Amino acid sequence: MSPLSVFLNYGFYKLREGKGSHQIWTNDNKTVTVPYNLKSRHTANAILKQANINKKI
After folding, report:
1. Which single residue of 4, 27, 51, 57 could bond 44 by disulfide (Cβ 3.0 to 4.6 Å)?
2. Is there a domain that residue 56 lies in?
3. Which keywords are on file for this protein (predicted)?
């Protein structure tokens, strides 16, 4: 399961394109920056933690 599908399940939506190779996602309460090519599960878990989602990849 990818972090983006987890974001969609938790009500997040893509707000805009970020700088370089990143996207900005939000759920109106929290905004997080996600890289396009997310290769590390550790980075994915850190992004989910930053978004207050208690789920691990």
Report:
1. 57
2. no
3. Endonuclease, Hydrolase, Nuclease, RNA-binding, Stress response, Toxin-antitoxin system
